[in-house]
Amino acid sequence: MAFEDRESPSGAHILFQDYPYGLDGLDVWLAIKTWVVDFCNLFYEDDDSVKSDTEIQAWWSEIRNVGHGDKRNETWWYRMTTKTDLTKALSTLIWIASSLHASVNFGQYAYAGYPPNRPTQCRKFIPEEGTMEFAEFLKDPEKYFLKTLPERFQATLGIALMEVLSRHTSDEVYLGQRATLEWIENDKVKQKFNKFNNTLQEIEKKILERNGDPKLKNRWGPAKIPYGLLYPDATKVELKAGITAKGVPNSISI
Predict the structure, then answer these.
(1) How far apart are CA 55 and CA 68, in angstroms?
(2) What is the percent of the chain where pLDDT is above 70?
(3) In 62-186, which residue ranges form alpha helices assigned H by DSSP?
C-alpha cells in the first residue's frame, strides 16, 4: 500500500491512490506534524533546550518507565534528547488520540449496527468437518449461520453499544479548534494554530474532491456512503450530537 519515503514531507508514499484511509490520513498526519514542529520551535531553540527541560524529561520518563514499564528496555523508544524526538513523539500521540481513533471508531455503526455483519456473540460453534452440524451447514449455510446469531435482546444490546460508540457528543472539540478564544495569550502560538486550522480546511476540500472522483470507487463502496472518517470538520460551529461518520475530535472522549 505504501513505502517509507524520506524525501516526502509526510514520510511515506502511497502506491494505491484509491485508499481513503491512507491518502486522507497522510494529509492529516502532515498537518499535525507541521503544527507540532511550529509550536515546539517557538519554545525550544535547540536539542540542549529539550534535554534540559526537566518537566519534559520527567513526563517522558513516567510514560516509559511507569506507564509502560514492561517495555521500557525496548530499542524503539525515543531518547527524548533532541527536538526531533520531541516533535515525533508529540505528533504520534496526537495522531493516535485524534485521527487514528476517529477513523476506527466513528464508522462502527454503519457496519456493526447490522448484527449479522458483526455478531456480538455466537450461539453455536463453527462446525467440525465430519460432524452432523457440518453436514447441516453444507446443506444450507445461510440457515445455519442465522442459527448462530445471538437472540433478539442480545442483538439489540449490540446495536445500542455500536450507536453509543459511534456518536459525537454535543460538546466535542474538533482538531484545529479550541473551546474558547482565550485558550492562550501568546500571539505567535495563535498565529501558528490558525495556520493549522487553515491547513485542515484545505484538507477538507481535498477530501470532498476525492469523494467526487468516480474513479476512486473505494471512497463510496457498494453502499454508496462517502468516506469521511478523516474529514477534520475544523470549521464546525454547530454543536450537534449524533452519528455523522465524520469529524476528528481532539482526543478520545470515552
Answers:
(1) 18
(2) 97
(3) 83-95, 101-105, 108-112, 132-139, 141-148, 152-166
